[in-house]
Amino acid sequence: MTALFALATSLMWGLADFGGGLLTRRIPALTVVVASQCVAVVVLGAVVIATGGWSAWGPQLWFAVGAGLVGPVAMLAFYQALALGPMGVVSPLGSLGVAVPVGVGLMLGERPGLGQFAGIAVAVVGIVLAGGPELRGAPVQRQAVLLTLLAAFGFGAVMALIAEASSSVTGLFLALFVQRVTNVVAGGTALYVSVRRGAVALPEGQGMGVIWSALPALAFVGLADVAANGTYALAAQRGPVTVAAVLASLYPIVTALAARGVLKERLRGVQAAGAGLALVGTLLLATG
């Protein structure tokens, strides 16, 4: 079940990243973050009430608060990077954050078998290669890479924190709700401060109409991200974090394939090879 939940995480994160990247090309990234998370708060609030999730309240929710504080910074950096550079290049680099939860798992005493270690190594190499040789190039590319590395560390920290925020399904709903409320508070504060300093929250010459017209896409991004966090937490609770984290970090391949299919972005040979290695690593992890 660990592999199944982790691969579902990859699918949903990959599609959420693709949708978020598209939205930031016409709406400021911070507005996309706040608006999409507001939708998630409303839906999760209803789920918590319906399932009685409030009964799982406890000190472990501080991990969810921590994830909620780190998440908006990571998402903002990542969406800005997606707006600057090709999705098929930026997204794979963002998965380097897998080093954080894998490191935590190893420090907590997890010792994957030889086959799983081989799968981790092959998958991580594949993920890096899927990013393509973009560390040198135009200034926009370099800025996109730096933003992506910042996002990667943040995503890895969120993965490590959310895995510790609950021990039951109802507790997970509450943890995700607390995380998203914190996201909205932190992101909303940042948006307010940026607007006071002269930044724009909406595209020039457009009002809230652009948000209402994009609401289905914003809802999809927010809810897919929530669902991915949930399935990752379930994967990490049911098996080694080192395995769950690597499998969950295959989401860039989903983003790259979506960009290839919808935006006609072309993958370089090294990126295609990286995607193939990542899939081989996945098979080793799933069967190790």
Automatic annotation (TrEMBL):
<feature type="transmembrane region" description="Helical">
    <location>
        <begin position="114"/>
        <end position="132"/>
    </location>
</feature>
<comment type="similarity">
    <text>Belongs to the EamA transporter family.</text>
</comment>
<feature type="transmembrane region" description="Helical">
    <location>
        <begin position="270"/>
        <end position="287"/>
    </location>
</feature>
<feature type="domain" description="EamA">
    <location>
        <begin position="144"/>
        <end position="286"/>
    </location>
</feature>
<keyword id="KW-0472">Membrane</keyword>
<protein>
    <submittedName>
        <fullName>DMT family transporter</fullName>
    </submittedName>
</protein>
<feature type="transmembrane region" description="Helical">
    <location>
        <begin position="144"/>
        <end position="163"/>
    </location>
</feature>
<feature type="transmembrane region" description="Helical">
    <location>
        <begin position="61"/>
        <end position="82"/>
    </location>
</feature>
<keyword id="KW-1133">Transmembrane helix</keyword>
<feature type="transmembrane region" description="Helical">
    <location>
        <begin position="169"/>
        <end position="193"/>
    </location>
</feature>
<feature type="transmembrane region" description="Helical">
    <location>
        <begin position="26"/>
        <end position="49"/>
    </location>
</feature>
<feature type="transmembrane region" description="Helical">
    <location>
        <begin position="214"/>
        <end position="235"/>
    </location>
</feature>
<dbReference type="InterPro" id="IPR037185">
    <property type="entry name" value="EmrE-like"/>
</dbReference>
<keyword id="KW-0812">Transmembrane</keyword>
<dbReference type="InterPro" id="IPR000620">
    <property type="entry name" value="EamA_dom"/>
</dbReference>
<dbReference type="Pfam" id="PF00892">
    <property type="entry name" value="EamA"/>
</dbReference>
<feature type="transmembrane region" description="Helical">
    <location>
        <begin position="241"/>
        <end position="263"/>
    </location>
</feature>
<feature type="domain" description="EamA">
    <location>
        <begin position="3"/>
        <end position="130"/>
    </location>
</feature>
